[in-house]
Amino acid sequence: MSRERIWRVGALIAAGLALAGCASNAGGADVASVVGKWQSSEDSEPYLTFSDDGKFRGNDGCNGMSGRYEQDGDTVSVTFVAANVRGCPGVDTWLSKLKSITVGESTLEVYDASGELLGSLARES
């Protein structure tokens, strides 16, 4: 094969890869990233903060929590690494039951292991 032909084949492959990367989300809407801080307007102020290295931390208004997450489209699955478990009379610790999350542009919907909606958090502005 001549050098010119090898160069043309290489250029076609590179162009194809570039177009494939651009088209990976061509048919769908952009998916919001979970990275950032999300919080509640409740008095106890539950929150979650997701970093771009796959880790999260948060507080349910009483107990701290941390772990790892994976985002696949608008769905986020979490795995706890550490969590405080203490009783806090009068505080609804719903966030500590989280197992998965659906990400919207400005709202996270938090679900438990059975898929029941527990509550939502708003993106911190």
UniProtKB/TrEMBL annotation:
DUF306 domain: residues covered: 41-91
Superkingdom of the organism of origin: Bacteria
Keyword field: Signal
TM region(s), chain numbering: none
Signal peptide (UniProt feature, chain positions): 1-26
Gene3D superfamilies noted in UniProt: 2.40.128.270
Pfam families membership: META
Entry protein name: META domain-containing protein
